[in-house]
Amino acid sequence: MKTLLLALLTTFVCIQTNAQDKWTSLFDGKTTNGWHTYGKDAVGEAWQVVDGAIVLNPLNKESSQLKGGGDIVSNESFNDFHLQLEWKISKNGNSGIIFFVQDEPKKYDHIWYTGPEMQVLDNDGHPDAKIYMHRAGNLYDLVAGVEGATKPVGDWNLVDIINEKGTLTLKLNGITTVTTTLGDANWTKLIKNSKFSKGESPDFGKVFSGHIGLQDHGNQVSFRNIRIQKL
């Protein structure tokens, strides 16, 4: 019996270890290595590493973004994946986590022309929250999410974005807010009825692999514990 229990325990530990080994960190907590501002070679000065988080600190605003800011994207691209991170938004703040980003600034002016976004928002303070598909945890302008998952401003929110075999799942603080199928007739309809049907983003939602993006929407936002599994 002791031998059997030891064998089972060893197997369990091995399974747990193998699962942990699948995670790859996208942020080392100390530098912005592995990221670059969209259309540039490095990350701008408005993105700073503070207390183990990558923080967009407002400096001087240039249109809707910050001087030395801009959206940042991972150097590496991904197909099927499980992305996990934590975010903290400032009061009345707005940001987003964009995926399937096509890193082609000569072709696309903005990363959101190319990939879907999980909304990051102060639901209680930002006017975008009045639009039911623009609230935190939603698949921005495509699918309204389950309500009640967001923590108050100043608290960290845990995100899971899972793309596996054509199924996209968004989770916020352990609650599944959105599940949808990529590329089917309903997906095409969602895009047609959204802001992404405009001519400026003709390839939106057609490519299901790409880079991970963190959005500069002109407000302070923090991200930490950014890691990913390839599925």
Task: Describe this structure as you would to a colleague.
By secondary structure, the chain is mainly β. It has a single domain, classed as Jelly Rolls (Sandwich), CATH 2.60.120.560. It has two helices and 15 strands.
The helix content, as a percent range, equals: 10-25%
Proportion of strand residues: 35-45%
CATH architecture: Sandwich
Radius of gyration: 18 Å
The strand count comes to: 15
According to CATH, what is the topology? Jelly Rolls
Distance from N terminus to C terminus (CA atoms, Å) equals 36 Å
Topology (elements, then pairings):
Blueprint: H1 2-21, E1 23-25, E2 35-37, E3 47-50, E4 53-56, E5 61-62, E6 65-66, E7 72-78, E8 81-89, E9 94-101, E10 117-121, E11 157-164, E12 167-172, E13 175-181, H2 185-192, E14 210-214, E15 221-230
Antiparallel strand pairs: 1-15, 2-7, 3-4, 4-15, 5-6, 7-14, 8-11, 8-15, 9-10, 9-14, 11-12, 12-13
Question: Top keywords for this entry?
Answer:
single chain; 231 residues; mainly beta; Jelly Rolls; eight-stranded antiparallel β-sheet; five-stranded antiparallel β-sheet; 15 strands; 12% helix; globular
